[in-house]
């Protein structure tokens, strides 16, 4: 009887020890996963399908947390920002809500671009308050070289800004301040490049051009971190 009780006590102790080790291992893995994924940001999505022209009401919307590195750059972060707006196009349940899918009453009929053109949406550093719809900008792309140094290239010149808004603190998972969410009129090729740059570039920057300045010639110019 004593041996049975002793054996039961030993087995119970081992079970508790193994359970504790397993729980510790799971907690460690979860912490490592959180560190790998990084911080999350809120993204507004639709709960159920909306047709073009349907109003964005609170019952139609939800907010989900998405890792900042995977979140759409221009997605809305709060449902209150959509008050009084309508869907500019049909949206499926679970789809992210971005500027291109929102009609705030000022949208002109049809696409704001001509045949062969595209609307490129990106988040970049720039002069908040100065860059606005109608402005023209150059786009600088900074990427890291294999040796860890940086190189900045004039990726695009004289792009027309169709829409722009300041990015609030934490909206894109980066630092607050001089960050702008902008929609630009570009060619299809340029749109593809800018979409890729959102992923590979260390930094994107919009340089405001003077009114009427349509000079070109700097595209492709690259300067390294050693200023050469």
Q: What does this entry look like structurally?
A:
The chain is built from two helices and ten strands. Strand 6 (136-144) and strand 7 form a beta hairpin. The longest helix is centred in the first third of the chain and has 36 residues, at 2-37. The chain has two domains: 38-110, Type Iii Antifreeze Protein Isoform Hplc 12, CATH 3.90.1210; 117-228, no CATH class. The relative contact order is 0.14. Helix content is 21%, strand content 31%. It has 228 residues and is an alpha+beta fold. It has helices at residues 2-37, 188-200, and strands at residues 40-46, 61-67, 86-87, 102-103, 117-125, 136-144, 150-166, 179-187, 203-208, 222-224. The strands form three sheets. Strands 5, 6, 7, 8, 9 and 10 form a six-stranded antiparallel β-sheet that branches.
Task: Give a brief rundown of this model.
By secondary structure, the protein is an alpha+beta fold.
Number of strands: 10
Largest sheet: 6 strands, antiparallel
> DSSP helix count?
2
The overall pLDDT, averaged over residues, is 79
Helix content: 10-25%
**Beta strand %:** 25-35%
Terminal residue distance: 85 Å
Structural class: alpha+beta
Q: Give the low-pLDDT segments.
A: 171-176
Radius of gyration (CA) equals 25 Å
Order of helices and strands: HEEEEEEEEHEE
Shape: flat
Question: Number of domains in the coordinates?
Answer: 2
């Amino acid at each position: 009887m004593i041996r049975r009780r002793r054996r039961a006590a030993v087995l119970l102790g081992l079970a508790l020890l193994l359970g504790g080790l397993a729980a510790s291992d799971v907690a460690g893995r979860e912490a490592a996963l959180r560190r790998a994924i990084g911080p999350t940001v809120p993204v507004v999505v639709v709960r159920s399908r909306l047709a073009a022209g349907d109003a964005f009401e609170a019952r139609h919307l939800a907010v989900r947390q998405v890792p900042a590195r995977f979140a759409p750059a221009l997605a809305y972060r709060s449902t209150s920002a959509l008050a009084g707006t309508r869907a500019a196009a049909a949206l499926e349940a679970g789809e992210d809500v971005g500027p291109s899918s929102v009609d705030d009453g000022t949208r002109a009929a049809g696409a704001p671009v001509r045949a062969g053109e595209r609307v490129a949406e990106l988040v970049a550093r720039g002069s908040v308050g100065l860059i606005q719809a109608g402005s023209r900008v150059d786009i600088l792309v900074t990427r890291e070289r294999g040796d860890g140094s940086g190189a900045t290239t004039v990726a695009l010149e004289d792009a027309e800004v169709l829409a722009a808004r300041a990015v609030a603190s934490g909206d894109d998972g980066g630092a607050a301040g001089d960050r702008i969410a902008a929609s630009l009129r570009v060619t299809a090729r340029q749109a593809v490049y800018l979409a890729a740059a959102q992923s590979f570039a260390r930094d994107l920057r919009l340089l405001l051009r003077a009114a009427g300045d349509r000079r070109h010639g700097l595209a492709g110019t690259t300067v390294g971190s050693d200023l050469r």
